[in-house]
Design a protein that fits this description.
Helix content is about 40%, strand content about 20%. The chain is α/β, with parallel strands linked by helices and about 230 residues long. The chain has an 8-stranded mixed beta sheet. The radius of gyration is 17 Å and the shape is globular.
Length: about 230
């Protein structure tokens, strides 16, 4: 039976980690790997409190989403890796759809349809643009729940050690390994970043940083604008 490993990088997420783990679907043959980047709050003990419910590993890695996800992949025992953000939610149907997509030998990985957890029209438009970008340009972001065959992930050397754009870099390399599927099943992500930083500012800044990346500017030179 194909086994799925859900990998979740966290840092100071005591407000979200319990609801995230509680909300995971009771999926067959699934394990969860929570990778902490040095939290100073109760993230780790709260996560460990769920180890009696399903196979769950809580480990640590140097802070940085790419480093943490690579450590999670190293610890994972599944055939399929699913990388999720702690402020996202995925359904059992979504995981089933990912497995079904990967039945095609040419498919090496993929991402889900993004829905932002808000009724605000502007955020619905942001999600719509993200989904069109994914389908037209083949460029999903990490908040769309990236999944990949573990053997392909290892062959690629995992995520590049970048402070930003590690998801974009990964997808661009993944497309060289085979077909990347974009599923209709939704992944729901929190609106917290847009609400905290401003919808228009966050959207325009992200587009600007993406433009810098495609112009060849190293992410280390502009990551401070994303992580002040």
């Amino acid at each position: 039976m194909t086994r799925i490993s859900i990998i979740v990088p966290v840092f100071n997420e005591e407000k979200l980690i319990a609801s995230f783990l509680r909300g995971l679907p009771p999926f067959r043959s699934m394990e969860v790997v929570v990778v902490d980047g040095g939290s100073r709050d109760r993230t780790v003990p709260l996560a460990r409190g769920f180890q009696a419910l399903y196979p769950l590993t809580v480990c640590s890695a140097p802070r940085g989403r790419a480093r943490q996800m690579n450590e999670g992949a190293r610890r994972a025992t599944g055939d399929i890796l699913v990388f999720l953000h702690v402020d996202s939610a995925i359904s059992e149907e979504g995981l089933e759809s990912a497995l079904k997509a990967l039945e095609a030998p040419e498919v090496v990985g993929g991402a889900f349809h993004l829905r932002i957890d808000s009724d605000r029209l502007l955020l619905k438009a942001v999600a719509g643009m993200a989904n069109r970008r994914s389908r037209w340009w083949g460029l999903p972001y990490g908040d769309q729940g990236l999944f990949v065959r573990k053997d392909v992930f290892e062959k690629m050397g995992g995520y590049a050690d970048l402070p930003l754009m590690e998801d974009v870099d990964f997808i661009r390399r993944l497309k060289k390994e085979g077909r990347v599927a974009f599923l209709e099943e939704e992944i729901i992500t929190s609106a917290r970043r847009w609400e905290q930083e401003g919808i228009l500012y966050t959207t325009l800044r992200n587009l600007f940083l993406l433009g810098l990346y495609f112009l060849g500017v190293p992410p280390r030179r502009f990551s401070k604008w994303y992580h002040p």
